[in-house]
Amino acid sequence: MKNIIFPLIAMLWWAGASAQSVVSSGFPELDEWTGQCLADRPYALGYPGNYDGNLDGFYKWYTANNLGDVLINNAGDPFEKSGALSSAKFERDVIEYFAPLYGFDTSDLWGIVTMSGTDGNNHGIYFGVNYLKNKTGKMPVVYVSDEAHYSNYRLCDVQNLDVKLVKSDDMGRMIPGELEKSLDPTRPALIIYAMGSTFKGAVDDQKALQEVFDRHPEIPVYRHVDAALFGGYLPFTEYRNLVNRKEMAFESISISGHKFFGIDSPCGLFITTRNIYDNQNSFDVPYLNANMRMINCSRSGTDPLKFWWLTKTIGVDGWTKQAKAMMDNTQYLMSELRRIDWPCWNNTYSNTVFFRRPSDQIVTRYNLANSHDERFGGNLSHIVVMQHVTREMIDHFISDLKNDEPCERK
Ligand SMILES: Cc1ncc(COP(=O)(O)O)c(C=O)c1O
User: Cys staple from 161: which of 50, 97, 140, 156, with CB 3.0 to 4.6 Å?
Assistant: First the structure.
């Protein structure tokens, strides 16, 4: 019976969800791809993209002015004089808009709109290394939890850095005692805080980890926050202090733009202080008439415009409402999973729910992300409750899950 009901529910839901018709491009393969994207969109539960972006007005304005014919390139420093056909002025506005939300003062500020959360982490690591090296003459050791996003570890490889993966607890938080055990007292420390971790949505306890460094005042420290997803919504919740440097003390932060903020292609924010910027290596580039301390030469001029548009059209009030709905829906998903006795877990502050992995059929249909952890019974999946994950969607998921079995029992 289960085999009949499941596809039937799915088909009805599919029919409603994919009702949006495709405007033909004149290229059949492109139209087919478009139709598939529109049909898949409501099922996108497993990854932290916001599929409810609000850029329609932006695109109307953009195309009405034929800006598609103009290359807008923000090569250079948005805090210096910018050249023609650059949107650097808006990029700077964006950094100045968001900086106070993360506890940075506009009087001591530097930042850029990045190409992604990973790009922001790359800058955090690169800036941290240069800052510590310039201050101490020694290369730092990087410390990051074994539950943090893989990009941090990968970037240390790219930058040829010594990195120590610090053990996390069951729920995914870096264990302060493990950090202390792994410290190298002869070299500076560059710590990356996961806010939160990718699969379990864990938030490293910055205060407890700082206490470890307080016990080792001989070790100079740079603290970078990888807040790819959580850095988007936490400033608009009661937990805002977790990403506020006045409360937590960190030197830089990276946030993705295509996650909570709903920008339709990968981008992000990298924010640090002027003091950190001033302690970077100087790269005077005569042909650009600029000091290029950031890693990339060409950078998008369109993404800062999209960010800027959102600050004007959504803003703090809109994001506060969105963050509340996401947190409420996260609790709704947890309560529904518990109601049907499906083992599930959720970290405080987190919009990520991880649970016993269902059948492959459900994993594929809802584009779930998978992991494995014996401490939680083996195979796991997670859902990231973004803006487009409504109660209706959760109800559909739960009704499918009720007819399913965790994959281990099969
Ligand atoms: C905690 C964390 N850091 C970094 C990243 C990478 O960000 P991006 O995909 O924007 O490069 C992710 C992506 O999911 C993430 O979850």
Answer: 156
pLDDT, residue 407, reads 65
Helix (H, G, I), strand (E, B) or coil at 149: coil
The one-letter code for the residue type at 86 is S
- Domain membership of residue 66 (yes or no) is no
Confidence band of 9 (pLDDT split at 50, 70, 90): very low
Residue 366 covered by a domain: yes
How do strand 162-166 and strand 141-145 relate by DSSP bridges?
Answer: parallel
In 3D space, the residue among 305, 256, 210 whose CA is nearest the CA of residue 49 turns out to be 256
Q: Which of 47, 50, 115, 118 to mutate to test the pocket of ligand 1 (most atoms within 8 A of CB)?
A: 118
Q: Which residues contact 130 (CB under 8 A, 6 or more apart)?
A: 279, 280, 281
H or E element in which residue 271 lies: strand 268-272
| Tens-place pLDDT, residues 19-49 | 578 999 999 999 999 999 999 988 999 999 9
Give me the domain span that covers residue 281.
71-313
Supply the pLDDT for residue 405: 76
55-93 pLDDT tens trace: 999 999 999 999 999 999 999 999 998 888 999 999 999
Q: Please state the φ and ψ torsions of residue 330, each to the nearest 5 degrees.
A: -65, -45
Q: Average pLDDT over the chain, rounded to whole?
A: 93
pTM (global) more than 0.85: yes
Tokens of 14: 């599919």
pLDDT in tens, 163-219: 999 999 999 999 999 999 999 999 999 999 999 899 999 999 999 999 999 999 999
Number of domains in the chain: 2
Domain boundary among 282, 313, 344: 313
CB of 256 within 6 A of ligand 1: the answer is yes
For the Cβ of 118 lying below 6 angstroms from any atom of ligand 1, the answer is yes
* CA separation for the pair 13, 54 (Å, rounded): 24
| Amino acid (1-letter code) at residue 214 | D
Whether 221 and 128 have beta carbons less than 8 Å apart is answered as: no
Closest CA to ligand 1's atom 8? 117
**Is the C-alpha dihedral spanning 200, 206, 210, 211 positive or negative?**
negative
Which two tokens mark 341? 């006795």
Tokens linked to 185: 């007292």
Question: What CATH number is given to the structural domain containing 243?
Answer: 3.40.640.10
Pocket lining: 251 vs ligand 1, CB cutoff 6 Å? no
